[in-house]
Amino acid sequence: MLFASNKVRINLLGMAELCDCCGGTISGQTSKCSGCAALVRPFTGLLQSQLPTTDGRARMNSILAPHRGLSPEQRLAGLVDNAGSETELPKPFRTRRGPAVHWSEESCKLWAEVAHSIRVYGRAIPHMPLPLPGGGLLMTDEDGKQHIDGTKLDRPLPLYDIAIWLSNPERAGVVADWSQFLLAMSCVVRRLRPLQEEEWAGWMNNEGWPGIDSPSAQISEPILGRLTHPFFKLIGKQCEQKPDERTSIGYIARDNPRLMEVFEGSPSEAWLEILEHAEDEFGRLFRNMVAPRLVVLDHRLHLLVLRDGKPCPIPITIDPKVWRVLVAWSLEPPGHPGADTMQNLFWCWSGERENWMPSVRQVRSARMLREAIVGLGENSSVEPIMYSENTSAFPVRGKSGLYYLIFSSSEPSKFVVEAVPNEEFLSKARTGGIQICIDVASGRDMPAGDIAVSYLLALRNDTTSRTAINTLDSLLYVIENSEPGKDELPIAEWWHNITVNYAHFGEGDYDDEYEEEEFDEEFDEDFEIEPDPIEQFELPEPGDNQALVEMIERIVSDVQRRQREE
After folding, report:
1. Can you tell me the distance from the alpha carbon of 266 to that of 336, in angstroms, rounded to the nearest whole number?
2. How many helices (H) and strands (E) does the chain have?
3. Which of 336, 387, 42, 392 is nearest to 211 (CA)?
4. What is the rounded distance in angstroms from the CA atom of residue 335 to the CA atom of residue 290?
5. Given CA atoms 82, 87, 89, 92 in this order, what sign does their dihedral have?
6. Using CA atoms, how far apart are residues 359 and 354, in angstroms rounded to an integer?
7. 473 closest CA partner among 509, 449, 506, 432
8. Are 230 and 188 in contact (CB under 8 A)?
9. Left, alpha or beta for 558 (phi > 0: left; psi -120 to 50: alpha)?
10. What is the pTM of this model?
11. pLDDT tens profile 250-301
């Protein structure tokens, strides 16, 4: 059975359901067509699990509803008032009990000088030891790097906000342990510079962290490219053992549960419970990502929210009673109440139905991808296929008879391809597919939708484009030269043989029969696609956007003409 999901469902009002990105008609089972769903990560830097759910929005909107229309400070105060008992906060974050902490006029003056230096010169005074209430010293070096009691902070603190608060002798006791509280804050916040509209995706992708840094509690080695969750970063920094190339800071933290117990509060309780069921929880958390919500911009603490469809930092009230709640929520595991609140605040702060809107050229490229998918008729589909719980893909049938799933990678200019033997295998491509590495020769500034079109059309015409894609050529060669053939075995058994043979292909099994050719990175100028009953076009050279647009227009025109003829 060929793809048959390019049909439109009419809602109760008699209107077609529309994709909320490209505006094209969809079945209504999802909010986006297959192409736009696959472009979410390149456009935003977010995985599917980081997008708001209907229930998540409803809960957050119910919390924010009484405070809508008030100032940001009043709204944050109302949010924090719903945070529950202070005992749910980590012990160092709570209000100091017992005798008032001594906070001298001299200390206040030092912090007032810091605030003045930032206002006038845009930076703190380097190498000036800054006392913290209750003991401890904060130091800033010439490069702006900060240390607390000799511990280097990975991220900068909002020094101006802190300086304003600590320049008054009556405010020191609002936090029990300033050293630990500020260390925790530094693990949660991210530095932010002014960003252009399309730079947010890369920033989100680079600055976010996984739900946990390892897929198994038994793995001690750091995993390349994986940041550590702020909670384990915080605990690990307080351990005697230091991380190295064989032992990650997350592993060190998890090996010291006593430190977590002493920290107390909801984050510690949640993580300790997860560690008791590590084998069930680690894999799920490892596949999740958390986007930053607390950022430092111009030495001030900000909350990232959506405003007018774009990420926007809003200043947070200069009040540690607000800070400590937001930091504590950020230390919780994904899926727990505080962590969910931080995630959904981003989407619901400015409005009940706020959505991240792509740039004009990103929308244009998304529409181009949709037109290409629709133009292929039954050989592709606008209905998304879930490759994994976090990844949505769009399918295409190659002229070779293979089916392919195309989905985004961590690089905005590169997509991942899984090949399967037939349409039924598309739903299990993650476990039963053959992944093909394909690099498109394109400028990094090209919108992801344009790049996705190149993948789509090359894979549709796989029997011809194989001359320019050596990994694809290798797979098709293995299929053509494996015995017994596809018609002689059950499809699952035959595909298993192909998978094994392809895995061994580079080990010399086919050296006597297969002569490796030198492939160009780009398609030749005279590269032509064999005429097809549905589409007759030539693949443009990568990077030639105008030619790509003209080609898509021809595809759509051809499909419309054939539909009229039928």
Report:
1. 9
2. 22, 15
3. 336
4. 10
5. positive
6. 15
7. 506
8. yes
9. alpha
10. 0.85
11. 999 999 999 999 999 999 999 999 999 888 899 999 999 999 999 999 999 9
